[in-house]
Design a protein that fits this description.
The structure holds 2 protein chains of 2 kinds.
Chain A: E1 3-4, H1 19-44, H2 59-66, E2 74-78, H3 82-88, H4 92-100, E3 123-127, H5 133-146, E4 153-158, H6 165-176, E5 181-187, E6 190-191, E7 194-195, H7 196-199, H8 205-210, E8 216-220, H9 224-241, E9 245-250, H10 268-275, H11 279-289, H12 295-317
Parallel strand pairs in A: 1-8, 2-3, 2-4, 4-5, 5-9, 8-9
Antiparallel strand pairs in A: 6-7
Helix pairs in contact in A: 1-2, 1-11, 1-12, 2-3, 2-9, 4-12, 5-6
Chain B: E1 2-6, H1 7-21, E2 25-29, H2 45-49, E3 54-56, H3 61-73, E4 77-84, H4 85-88, H5 92-99, H6 102-105, E5 115-120, H7 135-138, E6 145-147, H8 152-157, H9 159-164, E7 169-174, E8 181-185, E9 199-202, E10 207-211, H10 216-228, E11 233-237, E12 240-242, H11 246-256, E13 259-266, H12 271-283, E14 292-296, H13 305-311, H14 315-326
Parallel strand pairs in B: 2-3, 2-4, 4-5, 5-7, 6-7, 10-11, 10-13, 13-14
Antiparallel strand pairs in B: 1-8, 6-12, 9-11
Helix pairs in contact in B: 3-5, 10-14, 11-12
The chains are: A alpha/beta, B alpha/beta.
The complex binds thiamine diphosphate and magnesium ion.
The site of magnesium ion (MG) has 6 residues of chain A, from strand 6.
Chain lengths: 339, 327
């Protein structure tokens, strides 16, 4: 089996990036954090409804991984996808408007938090069926292969999806047909309240993936350097081999699964322990120690993130409602519109 | 000029034409390639079009139907063959939760131009797990279109417009029809079928028999018997199960003032129930008798021939139901 168990690099090692690039990635993580914190608050205020799944704690994964992909690549994500949409380039205001259910949202209020779609940045959802996005990514990769396009498909999913048939069917198909798929498993140790060892007979997810005859890599998902470097390597392997690669990002969500979760299934101490490894403060500390970031810079990028959030909220607040007369719109493609 | 073709040959010719005319079209499914298709619909295709476009899949209904959806999103025009409706239950999630919803859920950003074909129906002593008629379930779902070609003409002519449709289309092919033969015109233009409307297959004045798929031939047989007894039956082939052609149903019932709905699905929650509801909503005051229906009995379809026959709609049951309206 082809398992490359990469030991997580030492946390204090030098960051192998130019300071601009490093600070840019840090800024993206902060933008996500501030957006998510505000979303939680807005949920409490009743502005955002339905299900809301926050990415707080996992920021290094989406930021590190997505920055290793090209704008031409196809992205499939889960219902915990605000970060992915934002990093791909959807305006925060558009995301916020969608969460408000506004007409100005990416899906005009049809999707909400779990269904962010963006044709311009090739984000194919926002899929709220656990495992539902994996076959889709396989098909997007198949289309790319059949049309001789260079793009690959990157599919994000949680550890919970690994128990679904869709996971196994998709990995098998992608490997069997040699399709350019990057399987990105965000292993935050729990699927809702079910810990990995309570749902899997084999908890080493790389072993599972490797059994489908594809390279399987592992990265410390709390360390953006490890995430990005591992993903870069994985993406290169997908592009060169035109076959699939699996990456497991070991991460942790600091907040509840959704807004309805008493968190009875995990000890508070465990959460606190993981928070000490928080991707934002550990990375900014490293950058500062290496002289690649000043406190002023950090405060400035944080202020910029907060301002962006404030603008996004103002935009969503000022948004309009899709007219009820348009309720039945977009069930089918209108006559004469190409798909 | 016309020529005689079987249903199987008609469908094969339609797929062949699509594959030859559009490089984006490809066929995928279990045993569509080397085996030549479970029902030999794609015999010879692998040699002609190659393994990239005639794609044998593993036994992974969820996986390959989902992959076909992804391929459609990525610019291809897949025809995915699910061996039978019975196994489509393993792919239901992708059809219902992805294909049907993506256009709406994305606010109109992503359409899924996908064609899913599957065999449906009972009547071949295959027992309960191979005899479902679940097209009524699919017809419940907004976002997909559901077709049921019941004639050679429709088997030949529905695929091209289904592929041209920007949204997912599910085609149900009744296994009892594959060896049926009929005449087709020679010219291509005459082959295109309108996939929005029902079609009257026999004109009559006394009762409208409304049906689709594998039950059409039974309804026509019943109409023949009824004619001998002085009852003139009009037979409406729904052929588009979603969206239903309400106008055609209404027109036939308004004219005949009596109606029997024939559906191989089980009675409870059936497509027949939906057709009856539309009759009530639209032509209630034109009716001379309550609307009747002939559906499958509420039992898993049994193996033994006499039991299977008894479970399914049959011409005699249709005749009896019609006569009941004149009692
Ligand atoms: C097929 C399916 N089953 C159950 C659910 C309900 N559900 C939503 S999220 C979730 C947990 C999934 O966990 P994981 O894949 O690890 O992702 P995470 O939420 O941890 O990011 C469950 C069970 C669902 N949405 N889809
Ligand atoms: Mg999880």
């Amino acid at each position: 089996m082809n398992i490359d168990h990469h030991a997580p690099p030492p946390p204090a090692g030098p960051v192998p990036w130019q300071s601009d690039f490093a600070v840019g990635l840090l800024a993206d993580m902060v933008r996500i954090r501030r957006m998510e914190e505000k979303s939680a608050e807005l949920y409490g205020a009743g502005k955002i409804r339905g299900f809301l799944h926050l990415y707080i704690g996992e920021e290094a994964v989406a930021v590190g991984a997505l920055h290793a992909l090209s704008v031409e690549d196809n992205i499939v994500a889960t219902y915990r996808e605000h970060a992915h949409a934002l990093v791909r380039g959807m305006a925060m205001s558009t995301i916020m408007a969608e969460m408000y259910g506004r007409r100005e949202g990416c899906a005009h209020g049809r999707g909400g938090s779990m269904h962010l779609f963006d044709k311009a940045t090739r984000l194919f959802g926002g899929n709220a069926i656990v495992g539902g996005g994996l076959p889709l990514a396989v098909g997007l990769a198949l289309a790319a292969k059949m049309q001789n396009e260079n793009r690959i498909a990157a599919c994000f999913f949680g550890d919970g999806a690994v128990a679904e048939g869709a996971f196994h069917e998709s990995l098998n198909l992608a490997a069997l047909w040699k399709l350019p798929v990057l399987f990105c498993c965000e292993n935050n140790l729990y699927g809702m309240g079910t810990a990995l060892e309570r749902s899997e007979s084999q908890t080493d997810l790389c072993v599972k993936a490797a059994s489908y005859n594809m390279p399987a890599l592992r990265a410390d998902g709390m360390d953006i350097v490890a995430v990005h470097e591992t993903t870069k390597q994985a993406v290169q392997r997908v592009r060169e081999s035109r076959g699939p690669v699996f990456v497991e990002y070991q991460t942790y969500r600091f907040r509840a699964h959704s807004m309805f979760d008493a968190e009875l299934y995990r000890p508070k101490a465990e959460v606190e322990e993981w928070k000490t490894r928080g991707p934002i403060h550990t990375f900014s500390a490293r950058l500062k120690a290496e002289g690649k970031l000043t406190e002023e810079q950090f405060l400035a990028l944080d202020a910029a993130a907060n301002a962006e959030v404030a603008d996004a909220v103002a935009f969503a607040e000022a948004g309009t409602w899709e007219p009820v007369e348009d309720l039945l719109k977009d069930v089918h493609t209108p006559e004469g519109v190409a798909p | 000029m016309s020529r005689t073709l079987s249903y199987r040959e008609a469908m094969r010719e339609a797929m062949h034409e699509a594959l030859a005319n559009d490089p984006r079209v490809f066929l995928m499914g279990e045993d569509v390639g080397r085996y030549g298709g479970t029902y030999a619909f794609s015999k010879g295709f692998l040699d002609e079009f190659g393994p990239e476009r005639i794609r044998d899949t593993p036994l992974s209904e969820l996986g390959f139907v989902g992959a076909a959806i992804g391929a459609a999103l990525g610019g291809m025009r897949p025809i995915v063959e699910v061996m039978t409706v019975n196994f489509s239950l393993l792919a239901l999630d992708q059809i219902v939760n992805t294909a049907a919803l993506y256009r709406h859920m994305s606010g109109g950003q992503f359409s899924v131009p996908l064609v899913v074909r599957m065999t449906t129906g009972a009547g071949r002593q295959l027992a309960a797990q191979h005899s479902h008629s679940l097209e009524g379930w699919y017809a419940h779902i907004p976002g997909i279109k559901v077709l049921a070609p019941a004639t050679i003409e429709d088997a030949r002519g529905m695929l091209a417009p289904a592929l041209a449709d920007p949204d997912p289309v599910v085609i149900f092919e009744h296994a009892g029809l594959f060896n049926m033969e009929g005449d087709l015109p020679d010219t291509r233009d005459d082959l295109m079928v309108d996939i929005r409307s029902a079609k009257v297959r026999r004109i009559g004045t006394d009762v409208a028999i409304i049906t689709h798929g594998g039950s059409l031939s039974k309804a026509l047989a019943a109409a023949g018997q009824l004619a001998a007894e002085g009852i003139s039956a009009e037979v409406v082939d729904l052929r588009v199960l979603r969206p239903l052609d309400t106008a055609a149903i209404v027109a036939a019932v308004a004219k005949c003032r009596r109606a029997v709905v024939v559906d191989e699905g089980w009675k409870s929650g059936s497509l027949a129930a939906e057709v009856m509801a539309r009759i009530m909503e639209n032509v209630f005051y034109e009716l001379d008798a309550p609307v009747a229906r002939v559906c499958s009995e509420e039992v898993p379809i049994p193996y033994a021939k006499h039991l299977e026959d008894a479970a399914l709609p049959q011409p005699e049951k249709i005749v009896a139901a019609v006569k009941g309206l004149f009692a």
